[in-house]
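Incident log, support desk, overnight shift.

02:14 A customer reports that sequence design results differ from what the structure should imply. Their input is reproduced verbatim below. On-call engineer (initials T.W.) acknowledged and began investigating.
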């Protein structure tokens, strides 16, 4: 029988009834609920009252041509089991109490506490999550074929990060190997051409319920019904469940709901992409401006440092020049005091020396022939117009003499005539 006419409330009631009674037959469960106006509690009580075991997978389904008789006729048509009747009232009360208390039970806390206590006594071997996902993909391809969208090869956390970074939707499908409804959903939705068209370039992550990633994803999405199918959208740094499948009944209706959720999220994604593009452009422009500013600051700093170095070097050279001038002035004053007096014109064995300066001025003095030739330089230094470094030229052919080159030579050794004219030339200090 087709389930197209079931409402969402009736589908939920059907799932709850099957979970409690363990009746796998869809038609049998529907007949029980239909004759009790879809009251789960009354339908369960009827099953507990029957003088038979609960139906199994091998029990043939109840057909619509022979509906299950109403509750009032059960006591007449079937002989009740007195043991079951004895426990019917407390079981019915416990089930009713469970249904009333279920929304308020801290199942997650109880589950975590139980898991912690179990981990103290029993350590499960570590399983490779990626290997489990790969095994699931192989299983899915073997059972349903490869005519389906490509599964994301990675963990759920990686898929969420990639979807956020690439501004794309993330489709999540958790498959239950023991659910016939999951097989229908896989055949009709996942392996359909319409779903691939809706998925487009978004990410699709899937795994089995019994894997580590499947258990974690079921807890994260609070999945109570399988197949569990969700669409995750990112709004900035927040993750939002854009769509979550309830009870799967009709493929066309399910595809329409998925298509509507994707269309609603498309505008948001475009807005986020536009904002991200504008943000990237602003960041790039700001980065270029900052780089240009830093280059300008660096160039200005280098110029300022260069000016400081040049100014420091200029001051150093000036100070050094001043020290040299002062040192030479002291040296000139000392020469004036220590220079031997000029011999008289009547004294024999003297030489009249004339020194022509670069300015054209000439200075003259008589020297004794036995005086050191350095006296010529010392006499020239006593004149304020004579530079610090110079050399004297005289004779034919002319020879150049410097103060440091003369050792023990006397004036008579270098000059043969009684009068001699010397030419003074300045020497570059850098040589």
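02:41 Re-run completed on a clean worker. Output:
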């Amino acid at each position: 029988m087709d389930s197209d006419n079931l409402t969402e409330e009736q589908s939920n009631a059907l799932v709850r009834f099957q979970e409690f009674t363990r009746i796998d037959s869809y038609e049998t469960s529907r007949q029980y609920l239909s004759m009790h106006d879809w009251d789960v509690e009354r339908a369960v009580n009827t099953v507990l009252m029957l003088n038979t075991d609960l139906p199994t997978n091998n029990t043939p389904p109840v057909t619509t041509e022979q509906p299950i008789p109403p509750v009032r006729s059960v006591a007449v048509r079937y002989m009740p089991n007195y043991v079951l009747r004895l426990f019917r009232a407390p079981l019915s009360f416990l089930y009713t109490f469970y249904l009333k208390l279920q929304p308020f039970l801290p199942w997650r806390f109880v589950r975590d506490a139980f898991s912690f206590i179990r981990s103290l006594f029993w350590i499960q071997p570590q399983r490779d999550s990626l290997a489990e996902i790969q095994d699931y993909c192989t299983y899915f391809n073997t059972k349903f074929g490869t005519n389906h969208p490509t599964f994301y090869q990675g963990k759920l956390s990686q898929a969420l990060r990639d979807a956020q970074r690439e501004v794309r939707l993330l489709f999540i499908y958790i498959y239950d190997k023991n659910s016939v409804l999951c097989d229908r959903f896989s055949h009709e939705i996942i392996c359909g051409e319409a779903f691939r068209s809706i998925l487009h370039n978004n990410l699709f992550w899937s795994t089995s319920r019994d894997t580590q990633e499947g258990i974690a994803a079921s807890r994260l999405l609070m999945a109570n019904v399988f197949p569990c199918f969700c669409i995750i959208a990112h709004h900035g740094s927040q993750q939002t469940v854009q769509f979550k499948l309830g009870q799967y009944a009709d493929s066309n209706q399910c595809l329409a709901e998925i298509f509507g959720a994707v269309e609603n999220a498309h505008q948001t994604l475009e807005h986020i992409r536009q904002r991200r593009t504008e943000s990237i452009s602003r960041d790039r422009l700001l980065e270029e401006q900052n780089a240009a500013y830093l280059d300008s600051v660096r160039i200005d700093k280098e110029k300022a440092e260069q000016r400081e170095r040049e100014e420091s070097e200029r001051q150093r050279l000036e100070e050094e020049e001043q020290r040299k001038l002062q040192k030479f002035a002291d040296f000139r004053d000392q020469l004036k005091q220590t220079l031997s007096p000029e011999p008289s014109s009547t004294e024999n064995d003297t030489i009249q020396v004339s020194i022509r300066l670069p300015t054209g001025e000439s200075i003259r003095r008589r020297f004794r022939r036995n005086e050191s030739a350095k006296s010529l330089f010392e006499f020239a230094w006593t004149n304020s117009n004579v530079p610090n470094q110079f050399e004297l030229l005289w004779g034919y052919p002319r020879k150049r003499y410097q103060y440091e080159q003369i050792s023990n030579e006397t004036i008579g050794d270098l000059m043969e005539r009684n009068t001699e004219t010397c030419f003074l030339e300045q020497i570059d200090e850098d040589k």
